[in-house]
Design goal:
single chain, two-stranded antiparallel ribbon, mainly alpha, globular
Length: about 325
């Protein structure tokens, strides 16, 4: 018998899905995951095959965002499917999965902030752009992003290792961060970190947008394109923020419709964790002419003379 993915944060008792409903839900999730990850994987493949992309800091940051989307979507789908098949997981295995998922989740808003700053430098300091935004510095920034996200989640891991018993790590539980990292301080730490993170990211986006907007008044096409790109980054960030208010959305809807717990949980999970992953391919995969020219050949398995992989020097 399959069980629904229900958090212990809610007072509503655990409810079971029927076998037919469970199969339908998992098929929908898996199909969406495979479809979106196929497009995103094609983007990554296109990036690696053409030097015009992997020598450009803007595309490097974008692909980092796409890779994070692949990780997030894969982790969400894996945890959902496992919750229906086995319900509980070994604590140690769950902890490893959560480290990956939480780190990728934190990476997304940080990467969006850096991408906005890169647009700002390109438009407002065009003569210094190649000196400030180099490939080497871009990979260094990505490394710093991963260090920050891993530090956040590994701090909880080290505290859990120091305070929990060996039996706890050998036990099985429903794989949620609040179930694995159980110290009461964690809620305050999470709220403070989220506030600092989001304020910093939003400040970067607003500042970049305003400076680009001033430059765009001169009717420069590149400036206007950069302005629109930063706006899209802001929309992406809004979607990223849905994960931070996930519990509030769930609690609000469940209080209004207590009998629709399973439907609400599935619908909100798809809306928060899956559909936002559709945005990244559209930003460059569809809007960017250079990327689109090469991408369409890999997506539809066609070839053309102007889209052959470039040989690296």
């Amino acid at each position: 018998m399959n069980l629904s993915n229900v958090s212990r944060n809610f007072t509503t008792p655990v409810v079971r899905d029927t076998l037919q409903v469970a199969i339908i839900k998992n098929v929908i999730t898996v199909v969406l995951c495979i479809s979106i990850n196929y497009v995103n994987s094609t983007l990554v493949h296109t990036f690696t095959k053409h030097q015009v992309f992997n020598m450009n800091p803007r595309y490097i940051l974008y692909i980092h965002l796409v890779i994070n989307d692949i990780i997030l979507l894969t982790m969400f789908t894996l945890l959902q499917v496992l919750s229906y098949i086995v319900f509980t997981l070994n604590v140690s295995l769950c902890m490893v999965l959560l480290i990956i998922a939480v780190s990728a989740s934190i990476n997304n808003p940080l990467t969006l902030a850096v991408m906005a700053v890169e647009c700002y430098v390109a438009i407002c300091f065009p003569l210094r752009h190649t000196q400030i935004c180099t490939v080497r510095k871009t990979y260094m920034v990505i490394g710093v992003i991963w260090m920050l996200s891993l530090f956040y989640v590994l701090l909880d891991v080290f505290i859990a290792l120091a305070t929990e018993s060996v039996e706890f790590f050998n036990s099985r539980l429903f794989c949620l961060t609040d179930n694995v990292f159980r110290l009461p301080y964690r809620k305050e730490k999470r709220e403070i970190f989220n506030i600092v993170l989001l304020v910093s990211v939003w400040f970067s986006l607003f500042y970049s947008y305003l400076r680009i907007l001033i430059t765009a008044q001169a009717a420069a096409s590149d400036a206007k394109k950069a302005r629109n790109t930063v706006l899209i980054h802001g929309f992406q960030l809004l979607l990223c923020m849905l994960t931070y208010v996930y519990n509030f959305i769930m609690q609000g809807l469940i209080s209004l419709f207590p009998k629709a717990l399973l439907v609400i949980h599935f619908a909100v999970s798809i809306f928060v964790h899956v559909l936002p992953r559709l945005i990244s391919p559209a930003v460059y995969g569809l809007r960017d002419k250079t990327f689109r020219k090469y991408l369409k050949n890999y997506l539809f398995c066609t070839t053309s003379s102007d889209a052959q992989p470039q040989k690296k020097s």
